[in-house]
Amino acid sequence: MCSHSLIFHANLFLLLLIVGCHAQLRVDYYKNTCPNVESIVRSAVEKKLQQTFVTAPATLRLFFHDCFVRVRIVTTGCDASVMLATRNNTSEKDNPINLSLAGDGFDTVIKAKAAVDSVPGCQNKVSCADILALATRDVIALAGGPSYAVELGRLDGRVSTKASVRHHLPHPEFKLEQLNQMFASHGLTLTDLVALSGAHTIGFSHCSQFSKRIYNFRRRKSIDHTLNPTYAKQLQQVCPKNVDPRLAIDMDPVTPRTFDNQYYKNLQQGRGLLASDQALFTHKRTRDLVNLFASNNTAFEASFVSAMMKLGRIGVKTGNQGEIRHDCTMIN
Question: What pLDDT was estimated at residue 247?
Answer without folding.
Answer: 83
